[in-house]
Write a structure and sequence with these properties.
198 residues, mainly alpha, Arc Repressor Mutant, subunit A, Tetracycline Repressor, domain 2, 71% helix, TetR_C, DNA-binding, transcription
Length: 198
């Protein structure tokens, strides 16, 4: 197999670096050290730290979409079970990380510099994509009688993403799974029906 390019090494390591250190705290030296590449490589491949963050968000979003392919888009499961499978798979990752890091999209949204329109617009696009994926599954669940039909699917999807991000934020503060467990209990007791609680 060909060796990964230096740019790919920076991107692959950069997802973890920004997750663990945060956008503001991660300097170019930390980013390249974590990637195991010379510091000069960064400016060879990225015009700015903002451009790097956009690339990292894209990679993180690709990883999230892969999880959604295995869960939300798995039509062998009932729609409500797809939603549970998605949240359960993310919960497994959060547990492996010691309940410390949360979601990179949420973290970046909080840390985004006020003047960074490029980063803000990219976060809007990523959040829109995530919401659309939830909305598609919610519509399928409504058609199957698993989600209340008196609720707008886009509203439910927006609520899901906002509540999930909030639960992960509180999880990071508490370093505890309790906010995640509370989110899932309320979600599957109120909005989503015909899905046995775990």
């Amino acid at each position: 197999m060909p060796r990964p390019s230096l740019k790919e090494k920076i991107i692959a390591a950069g997802v973890n670096t920004l997750h663990e250190r945060g956008f503001a705290a991660a300097g170019i030296r930390e980013i390249t050290t974590d990637a195991g590449v010379p510091q000069g490589c960064f400016t060879n491949h990225f015009k700015s730290k903002e451009a790097f963050a956009v690339t990292i968000l894209d990679r993180y979003h690709e990883n999230t979409q892969a999880i959604m392919d295995r869960t939300l888009r798995d039509e062998s499961r009932a729609p409500a079970q797809r939603l549970r499978a998605y949240f359960d798979e993310i919960t497994t990752w959060l547990e492996a990380a010691g309940w410390r890091y949360g979601c990179l999209v949420g973290n970046m949204s909080l840390e985004m510099p006020e003047h960074s329109e490029i980063l803000r617009e990219h976060l809007v696009d990523v959040c829109r994509s995530l919401t659309q994926s939830f909305a598609s599954t919610v519509r399928a669940a409504q058609a199957a009688g698993e989600v209340r039909n008196d609720l707008d699917a886009d509203d439910v999807a927006t609520f899901l993403l906002a509540s999930w991000e909030g639960a992960m934020m509180r999880m990071k503060v508490d370093r505890s799974p309790k906010p995640i467990e509370q989110f899932k209990r309320v979600l599957f007791a109120t909005i989503i029906m015909n899905c046995d609680p775990q």
